[in-house]
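Local shape tokens:
==================
===
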Amino acid sequence: MKQFNYEAKDLSTNKVVKSIIQAESERAAAKLLMSQGFAPQKISELDGSDSVLDRLRGRIGLKDKVVFTRQLATLIGAGLPLVQSLHTVREQTSNKRFANIIDDIIGAVEGGKSLSEAFGKHDNVFNSIFLALIAAGEASGTLDDSLRRIAEQQEKDAAMMSKIRGAMMYPMIVLVVIMGVIAFMLLTVVPQVEKLYDDLNQTLPLLTKLLVGAANFFAAFWWLVLIGIGVAVYFFLQFLKTESGIKFKDSMKLNMPMFGRLFRKLYMARFSRTGQTLLKTGVPMLDMLKITSQSVNNTIVSASIDRAAGKVKGGKALSVALQPEDYILPFVPQMIKIGEQSGKIDEMMGKAAQVYEDEIDEEIKAISTAIEPILMVVLALVAGGLVGAVLFPIYSLVNNINM
């Protein structure tokens, strides 16, 4: 999907709206805008021409959305009319782009559209879970509760992802240190050893000779090495955007050593927590499965949920439909089965989510404890090997001179 800046007139309010939309092409973006009740005036594809600072200034972060939903929930719960609540929240929004979107939502609501329809015009900002909960809250008259659940859902999901990123950050830092040690040894120490052997007309040992060759190549063709790395990274990132690349990445997450089990629990916590939130708000079972399939953010797990949804549509119980799926951990269908028997599926899914969220915390602590000595050993072996490759020929040279 590409992103397009657009300027369009809202046919229901005659106001001009500026925002961003996702579509396959400029023509598809125009069709999508027209289907949402807009008359496109200007559409241009987003590219890298804007400065990083400009893009960051226009970015709508999770904190912006959480604060917005919590404030709106509080105001509606206090009995303020919807439009007045939106205006009040709009006045407290410092993000200019987000403020423009809220203005558009206010205009749509004042023009007679439902809040879910108004939010739906900006589905690049508000995801399917957000829109489904808003629609369910409007239908049941519990919009403030729905908004609070949205904020809680976003905060919990962000907290889990933050913990996982933190656990993966340490190995990345150690890897950078290892690469730095290798580069330092090759560019500073190894050339001195070569010069010493040349001055004494001695032959370098094989291992040191290989290091010298690598150092000389990097010193002479460092630009070629950097271009090669850049090209490789670029094509790998492009590959990850393809269907095969997405499946490869998702499969790696589920099966990588140490982190695979952590990601599986993350997806089960996300599925269970989202399912609980949707069912509790009154979203039908099949709609819940469709939305959670999109929200887990893993195509392989999504395919498992989609297959289960097909079985549920055919008349099977959700617990039975989920049980044979390889990437659905057994505890989830077991808890759902209890919920089916007691009539409290949403409650049981919430308890399953809580169990996995607690286990993720313990898993991250275990990984952090286990990975530190492993990385220290790897760092020691690399550094020791390089130092050995440098010091061994020097000791050998000293021994030969003494003899």
About this structure: The beta strands are 2-10, 15-23, 38-45. The chain has a mean pLDDT of 81. The first helix runs from residue 26 to 35.
